[in-house]
Design a protein that fits this description.
Elements: H1 2-8, H2 15-28, E1 33-36, H3 39-49, E2 57-61, H4 66-74, E3 78-82, H5 93-99, E4 104-110, H6 119-129, E5 132-136, E6 144-145, E7 148-149, E8 156-160, E9 173-177, H7 180-189, H8 196-199, H9 223-230, H10 233-254, E10 260-262, E11 269-270, E12 276-280, H11 283-292, H12 320-327, E13 328-331, H13 339-364
Parallel strand pairs: 2-3, 2-4, 4-5, 5-8
Antiparallel strand pairs: 1-9, 6-7, 6-11, 8-9, 10-12, 12-13
Helix pairs in contact: 2-9, 3-4, 10-13, 11-13
Length: about 375
């Protein structure tokens, strides 16, 4: 497919962009899909279409990827950090409710590592308070809540097709809009604000009578990246199901290991499992020991409220986010792992946890 595009010469634009958007729309159950250069540009477009401007406030979680929260700064807005629920990675809706002010224009809810958050509750809160709701489905493609794909409760949902996501386009994102009108506007803004149907004459030249009433950006996904994503659409669901099966096996393997507790998905949620999330005592020691044994474990993110560039007050050391940051660990669970690999991960966790416990006891002696 990539060779087909390269040989055609239609690399910047072409038919695979629309085919890929249609495929994503079929997966998420919404046809209003607008592909973008990357995920951050999709978040920025969502904020712009939601009316977020300089000086406004956007509620978001600090335990997140900069690919999401950097867009708030680019829009000239201020992030307001919302805590997570105890023992989970879910945005705390009650805390969000307390932090909404007259300057709040939008809420971004991140479905962390493919674990669905309380989107329905947040959608109801946002509707009652008259603010936009954006679901960050970054690595949550195929994640479901109450039987339906995540992203359905929001005004805008955002997806990523970075190389380590469920679908790898080498780079790319998508903005899924609730309405056709918003999707049309997003398509114009992702290409400098151009209305494609009337921008060029029958001879292919720029129409001197065409107007651009709102100047947009260069946020389009190219035809080559779209083709790479398109050929993965059929296999992606099966890969996610295999990751789910791997997590089930890992949970059984970790059940009797002290010091490592899997984070459970919310009731009715079926995660896409970018990684398997756990809470671990002596996390840093455990993490290093796993890495030393060749296990690609990770602390996932670093809380964004510590970065001075956002020019906002952080959540503080007693926040649930602080606890999460100090204890979270993500274990590999991808579709490419076989039973021997999963056993190796389980054995490594058992040895590392025992070593961490012994080290902790020695330190206290």
């Amino acid at each position: 497919m990539a060779l087909e595009v390269l040989r055609s010469g239609r690399i910047a634009s072409g038919g695979y962009v629309g085919k890929f958007e249609d495929g994503i729309g079929h997966i998420v159950g919404n046809p209003h899909v607008v592909s973008t250069h990357d995920m951050t540009s999709a978040v920025f477009l969502a904020l712009h279409l939601a009316g977020v401007r300089a000086g406004d406030e956007v509620l978001t979680t600090a335990f997140s990827c900069m690919a999401t929260n950097s867009a708030i700064a680019h829009a000239g807005a201020m992030p307001v950090w919302v805590d997570v629920r105890p023992g989970s990675v879910e945005m705390d809706v009650a805390d969000a409710s307390r932090k909404i002010t007259a300057r709040t224009r939008a809420v971004i809810m991140y479905h962390v590592a493919g674990y669905p958050g309380p989107a329905k509750e947040m959608a109801e809160l946002c509707k009652a308070r008259g603010i936009a709701f954006i679901e960050d489905c970054d690595n949550a493609l195929f994640a479901r809540q109450d039987g339906a794909h995540v992203g359905r409760h929001s005004d805008f949902a955002v997806y990523s097709f970075y190389p380590n996501r469920q679908i790898n386009c080498t780079e790319g994102g998508a903005l899924v809009c609730k309405s056709a009108d918003m999707a049309t506007k997003a398509r114009q803004l992702r290409r400098f604000g151009i209305e494609a149907s009337g921008f060029r004459t029958a001879q292919g030249e720029i129409n001197p009578h065409a107007d651009i009433p709102e100047i947009g950006w260069a946020y389009t996904m190219n035809n080559l990246c779209a083709a790479l994503g398109y050929v993965q659409l059929e296999q992606a669901q099966e890969n996610v199901e295999q990751a789910r099966a791997n997590v089930a096996k890992l949970k059984t393997r970790l059940a009797h290991i002290e010091g490592i507790t899997p984070i459970n998905a919310a009731d009715g949620a079926d995660p896409a499992y970018w990684v398997m999330l756990c809470l671990a005592e002596n996390r840093d020691t455990l993490l290093q020991q796993l890495k030393d044994q060749g296990i690609s474990a990770s602390a996932l993110h670093h809380r964004n409220d510590t970065y001075s560039g956002f020019r906002t007050t952080g959540l503080g050391p007693k926040a649930e986010t602080a606890y999460l940051q100090e204890h979270i660990i993500g274990l590999p669970c991808g579709w490419w792992l076989n039973d021997a690999d999963l056993d190796a991960i389980g054995n490594a966790c058992a040895l590392a946890a025992d070593g961490s416990l012994n080290s902790s006891l020695s330190d206290q002696a």
